[in-house]
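Feature request disguised as a bug report, sorry. It would help if multi-protein outputs had a clear separator. Right now it looks like this:
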Amino acid sequence: MRAQESDPIKDEPTVTPDGESLAPRIDGLIVRPLRGIEDKRGEIVEVYRPSWKVHAEPLVYVYQVLVRPAAIKGWVVHTEQEDRIHVVSGSLRWAFYDDREGSPTRGLLNVITISERNRALLVIPRGVFHAVENIGHCEAIFINMPTRAYDHGDPDKYRLPLKNDLIPFDFDDGRGW
């Protein structure tokens, strides 16, 4: 307990000895770590395999997104599809907010950084708001493999402004401690 404003604050544990986050995770939000296999010629990273059983729905559509340095995309939510995302390059900070009626984690916010040094397959459930910020100095690229192809005539995409009354997160959250 701090007696004065100038007294240091002791850190709370944030990960297990194996590096697993201790933070509660939004119900249905999957973060499956991915490992590259590297040799003198280069590297290969498996992005998605049905045998992993992280998601039952088949691959039906794949697209690539480029996010420029310091750019933020979001908040967006889908009602019909789930997103399955792999970061190819760059450093992206993802924020997720669960506003689903009846969800055991309704009101929970998760913030996760994924990069080519910390690879993962993200599975974002329908009904979970998400936004992404490029926190690196270069362009960042991710691939999305949603469970439904984009419908140009009736997009399954609903947006909120970055600053809103629903989601308790601000991307302009300072430069650290």
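(second protein starts here, but nothing in the output says so)
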Amino acid sequence: MQLEIIMFNMSGFSEWQKGISNRNYQVFKKLTAHPNVKRIIAVDFLPYTLKRAARNWLENILYPPLSGQRGSIENVYKGAFSRMVKVNGYNSEVYVFSTINSLISDKLTFWRLNKLLKKDIFKTSDNTKRVIWSYFPMTVDYFNNIDSDLTVFDAVDNWIYHESFGKYKELLRDNYNTIAQKSDLIFTVSNTLVDFFKKMKRKNKVHWISNGIETKRFKDAKPLSGDELPFNIKRPIIGYIGTIQNRFRVDLLEHLAIKNPNKSFLIVGPIWGGLKIKDVLSLRNVYTTGRVSYKDAPRYIKTFDACIIPHKVNRFVTYTNSLKVLEYLACNKPVVSTPSSGVERFSDNIEIKKDKKEFNQALQKVLSPGYKNKLEKNKKNLSKFDWKIKVDKMVNIILQNLK
């Protein structure tokens, strides 16, 4: 059995090409190499604000920056507000559909997409089944507007509590309820999301499949050399990698930096606007790099002497599942984390502290000479978390349900 997957993404394809990585991207990438996947039609993040629409139009419709990244592109359709391209270089057929029609109407978006799906290039045999696979809870119109053999929703987190979607809470509540009632399969990153859908009276075919990692890629990475580091930075280096947004505990970073003037704190990742972090960044032992490419992330982690996850414990975080702790552990680095969602599974391998003073004490502990032996002794076998294993499991569940 072959699968044609129409994937509604939580990112833009061009963002992935620039080095952004998330669960959506990792699943997409593994699916393109799966023997049962004939074709993926990736639908870029559908914009609902003027700012996002302008960005989509420039990056994906007017000038799609895809050529030369993975392979050449071929135009399938180009209009004033939508574009579809075929991206060569994958084992499966890959098409990317970008539009800003969602700013006007979801119906217009699906009308254009359906017209494209009727093209001869998308004709399939009876052995090919169409699967809708969504990461994007802002729309559920595909249930009524696109013919499919199976619908899948992969819940990465709970957007009702996402700071960027505050004004869409009621829409999201309604959409999640529709997803709970109508999706053939639901995957989630956490048990809390399983419970979330159970409260919406979804009783079966909800599968908890936690995040994964490209184990070998992180394990085999080489640390940055002194010349490659962006600063003349002194050791020990305490590192964090990821997007610095409202869930990041600025107060905890400040406390650690002040209490440890002889240690360097390297924050690797973009900083969201509105976050009150300027004073902390002015401290002489705190350094920031801005965004780095996903391909360079393992080398930065390998350069750290210890890793921290200073996240707030709030409603949104309870629905997430940490990718960061997997990346840190794959690089065999000591980790101190606040009790973020999912880290409790690794309590034998990392230090979990909420209080500032205790967090700092744990940091001293993991940097001590004897802790390395504990790290080696307790290091989990991360092979079971490999993304290929995770995606193979998802595809097997889909194939079983199609049968």
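Even a blank line would do. Unrelated, but nice: Residues 136 and 348 are 34 Å apart (CA to CA).
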